[in-house]
Amino acid sequence: MKLFAWLLILAGIAYGGAKWYLHNEVAEAMDMAVVMAGPFATIEYDGVASTMTGELTIEGVRIKPANFNDSVYIDRIGIDTPSFLSLVDISNFANLRSNSIPEYFGFIVEGLTLPVNADYYRELYKFSLEAQGHEISGDPAALCTGRYGFSPDVLADLGYHEQVFSMSMTARNDEGQYSFEINSSIEDMWEADATIVLAGNMMSELSLGSAYRPKLRELEIEYTDRSLKSRVEKQCGRMGLSGEETYRAQMESFRLFGESNGVVFDEYMLEPYQEFLNGKSTFLITARPNEPIAMSQIDLYNPVDVPALLNLEAQAL
User: Which residue segment(s) compose the domain that 46 sits in?
Assistant: First the structure.
């Protein structure tokens, strides 16, 4: 029993020392990042946290972009690994070896909060429109459905006074393929789970540099409405659209979303989306090409042919 007690004490001392070392390394890196970001933004944070299960996070981050009055707040942001020992291994970047790279690696962002009336939010919206080649529209159908993104004013009318975004992404290196699992959400708006599977070993192929062409083996996106759809329908009604006009505007926004990504949706996408609009809460998209396809080559195809090329299908659940 005494030996067991001493082993527990020694294990506790070792864990405490490793945790202190890890937090100290991360805090020093963060302090350096804060200084380097000085010309662009003021960054403050509450502290560093880690868990035995392999999470390492920066807590209570506040970012005030230069030349703006309002700040961005993040509850916590960090990484996820298989265990605490994995964190200790990857914290020493100078001696990082290929055999110390964990079997999976993830990123965590929780509670990234953007007030919709923030000055930088309006600038982000304008920048987004310019990037898409659009100007601020007065078209009620485009505005209430967020065809080119929801403006700060429309978001407020929809009942959103802030956007609270969270995301986790995990990358796994399995034999013969590399996969990404992504969960993202905006509070009281929507949630999306995505799985992307690439053929081959991405980590080794990245050594090819610009010659690397990731090949898509499989894609699955499950989008779940968390009240946005009903809010949009009510807002479109307040802006003078009938139920039928709102429905057509939502379908048009979906078609334009596809075209902006180089895809002309066929009936296997449009009919399930109609079901989604008419009462279903979840929209599931799958892409399973017959052979892995280089994603950089998709743009070379006629957008009408892309759904068949990707074997693109959807379901309303």
Answer: 1-115
169 plus 283 within the same structural domain: yes
Tell me, yes or no, whether 123 lies in a domain.
Answer: no
- pLDDT for 278 beyond 80: yes
Neighbours of 257 (CB within 10 A): 14
In this prediction, residue 231 carries a pLDDT of 97
DSSP 94: G
CB 236 within 8 A of CB 229: no
Q: Which residues contact 200 (CB under 8 A, 6 or more apart)?
A: 176, 177, 178, 215, 292
Task: List beta partners, residue 72.
Answer: 63
Domain shared by 168 and 95, yes or no: no
Q: Are residues 54 and 178 in the same domain?
A: no
Task: Verify that 2 and 86 share a domain, yes or no.
Answer: yes
Residue with tokens 């895809």: 263
Tell me the one-letter amino acid at 127.
Answer: F
The encoded tokens of residue 291 equal: 């052979």
14 pLDDT above the threshold of 50 = no
How many structural domains does the chain have? 2
User: Quick check: 36 pLDDT over 80?
Assistant: no
Q: Are residues 56 and 205 in the same domain?
A: no
Residue 283, exposed/middle/buried by CB under 10 A (0-12, 13-18, 19+)? buried
| pTM for this model (two decimals) | 0.84
